[in-house]
Amino acid sequence: MTMTTGERIRRLREERGLTQDRLAGKLGVSFQAVSSWERDEYLPSLENLIQLAEILDVSTSAILEERTYSFETKQAIYDWTHMKTFVKTTSKVLGLTDTSRALAFALKAHEDQKRKKSDIPYICHPLTVACHALALGVRKDEVVAACLLHDVIEDCGITAEELPVSDRTKEIVLLLTHEKEDGENRDRLMKEYYGKLARDPDAALVKCLDRCNNLTTMAWGLSRERICRMIRETEEYFPALMKTVKNTPEYNDAAWLIQYHMDSMLDIFKRLL
Fold first, then answer.
1. Contacts 24+ apart (CB under 8 A), 63-67
2. What CA dihedral angle connects 49, 55, 59 and 61, to 10 degrees?
3. What tens digit of pLDDT does each residue of 73-116 get?
4. What is the 3-state secondary structure (H, E, C) of 139-190?
5. Which of 3, 85, 95, 172 is the most buried (most CB within 10 A)?
6. Is 12 left (phi over 0), alpha (psi -120 to 50) or beta?
7. How many CB atoms within 10 Å of residue 63?
8. What is the pLDDT of residue 73?
9. In terms of domains, do 111 and 139 share one?
10. Span between the terminal Cα atoms of the chain, in Å
11. Do 29 and 109 share a structural domain?
12. Do the beta carbons of residue 231 and residue 266 sit within 8 Å?
């Protein structure tokens, strides 16, 4: 059955648990205005439409245009237990001792954590980053281990001294860990953070793999505003990281595929937004 614009506004509002009064308050209009939109007596002004899309976290076209299709989506592409087995087996076969220790430590550290806005175990993220590295032919023990541990200091209240890995792996993880930024010092901290990463090929590689996975999952984990910020941040800071990765002979083949993955995801989101 075809839905009117008013019916779509009402459906989107109700799906987000908003009353007409609450939505009106967020928009700075009367609840009668919202009611008139939902009864199709009037269309929102362009300014109100843009605000409405931001509050409901959809595109303006999702409000104005009838969808004639629907798709099933997945939050997790691979079962995290299968990835765990792959990393465990591969680290044993290749003799990656840091990776083996890092796997056990990361599983425990992220045990009760979930990915943002989902029921997906958080460990799915570092496992995906590690599997991505291994699939690209990366065999440096410290790098794969850092893929598994890159969030434990920042998100789990763990210090570098507690990590059961080599000093080099700890160094990479510390480089990947950054302070929580606020509005006043965010730009300075981000420039310092990415500047240090760009001077270390191993850390730059892990960060690029991390960003690939975060770009892939941001559609269901982030608001439209946060997605736009992620796109801008990626375009500003990651070219320098990718240059470092490309200029490292052992990562030359992996660099092309990482760049393709990153650029493809950015282009898709920019077109859809």
1. 63/5, 63/8, 63/9, 63/12, 64/5, 64/8, 66/2, 66/3, 66/8
2. -40
3. 666 677 899 999 999 999 999 999 999 999 999 999 999 999 87
4. CCHHHHHHHHHCCHHHHHCCCHHHCCCCHHHHHHHHHHCCCCCCCCCHHHHH
5. 172
6. alpha
7. 19
8. 67
9. yes
10. 26
11. no
12. yes
Residues facing residue 121 across a β-bridge: 114
Give domain status of residue 74, yes or no.
Answer: no
Which residues have a Cβ under 8 Å from the Cβ of 17 and sit 6 or more positions away? none
Q: And the tokens for 58?
A: 């959809």
- Report if residue 72 sits inside a domain: no
- CA–CA gap between residue 183 and residue 262 (Å, rounded): 26
From residue 86, alpha-carbon distances to 103, 120, 137 in Å are: 11, 19, 14
Cβ neighbours of 52 (radius 10 Å): 23
Shared domain check, 198 and 103: yes
Q: What total of structural domains would you count in the chain?
A: 2
- Report residue 68 as tokens: 């004639």
Per-residue model confidence as pLDDT tens digits over 131-182: 999 999 999 999 999 999 999 999 999 999 999 999 999 999 999 998 776 6
Locate 215 and state its tokens.
């770009």
In a domain, 181, yes or no: yes
Same domain, 148 and 189: yes
Whether residue 175 sits in one domain with residue 263? yes
Domain that holds residue 23: 5-64
